[in-house]
Design goal:
mainly alpha, 0% strand, globular, IS66_C, Transposase IS66 C-terminal domain-containing protein
């Protein structure tokens, strides 16, 4: 399952580690988060590339 999440994040232009960190922080912060679809890789804009 984690491989699928990582590869999906990559396909959507994300750094998988940063994306997963953002998602886990959001879940931990918003315990009553109703819209989990908003956390999927294709629903979150990718992080800007580091210079």
């Amino acid at each position: 399952m984690f491989c699928t999440l990582i590869e999906t994040a990559k396909c959507n232009g994300h750094n998988p580690r940063l994306w997963l960190t953002r998602v886990l922080e959001a879940i931990g912060r918003d315990r009553d988060l109703a819209d989990y679809n908003a956390l999927l890789p294709w629903a979150i804009p990718p992080e800007p590339a580091e210079a």
